[in-house]
Predict the structure.
Amino acid sequence: MRRDMEFGELGDVEGALRAEGVGLAPISTGDASLVTGGVTVLATATANDIVEGRLRGLVVPGGSQDEASLAAVRSLVDLARANDLLVIAFADGVAVAAESFGVAAEAHGALFKAGKATLLNERADLSAAVSAL
């Protein structure tokens, strides 16, 4: 994954998500997200997988700094919302997802579904929310 991905106070959440049975399939938001420090991360999912129902949710880390990256992230979140997918966002990704869902959310992480936000301020909150899915 990218070095600049930010999960805020919750730290690296990949292990916590996997422990709850979540399989992760990276989606690229552009060429810059595929190569970092000489390491190539191959995207295993696309926006089309959201539309065709092959994904159950979207994980949105923070860390997108430039306007093009933010626009790509917003586009994926909007697509996930339009297709009634769960969105789990972290760090500054929470604000991006909250804006798309039209709800207020200020937390280290948040789970968005059906126009509602569940705030995630501790790893235990993340585990509880994901295990309840």
Observations:
- Residues 67-82 form the longest helix (16 residues).
- The chain has one domain: 8-131.
- The CA atoms of residues 47 and 76 lie 7 Å apart.
- Residues 8-131 form one domain.
